[in-house]
Amino acid sequence: MANSSESGDHPNQNDIRSTDLTEEEATRYDRQMRLWGIDAQQRMRNATILVVRLRGVATEAIKNVVLAGIGKLVIVDDENVSEEDLGAGFFFRDEDVGMKRLDAAKLRIESLNPLVTVETITDSSILNDGLESVIKIVDLVCVTDWNQDGLSRINEVCRTYQKPFYCGGTYGLVGYIFCDLMSHSYLAQDRASAKVQPKTIKTTATYTPLSHAIRHKWNNLTKRQTKEVNPALFFAILGESIWKFQSMHGKLPDDAKQVNELEDIANSLISEAEVNKQVLIGEPRELLSSLSTTACHEFSPVCAIVGGMLAQDILKALGGREPPIANFFVFDGNTGGGTVCRMNMP
Question: What region holds the THIF-type NAD/FAD binding fold domain (predicted)?
Answer without folding.
Answer: 29-342
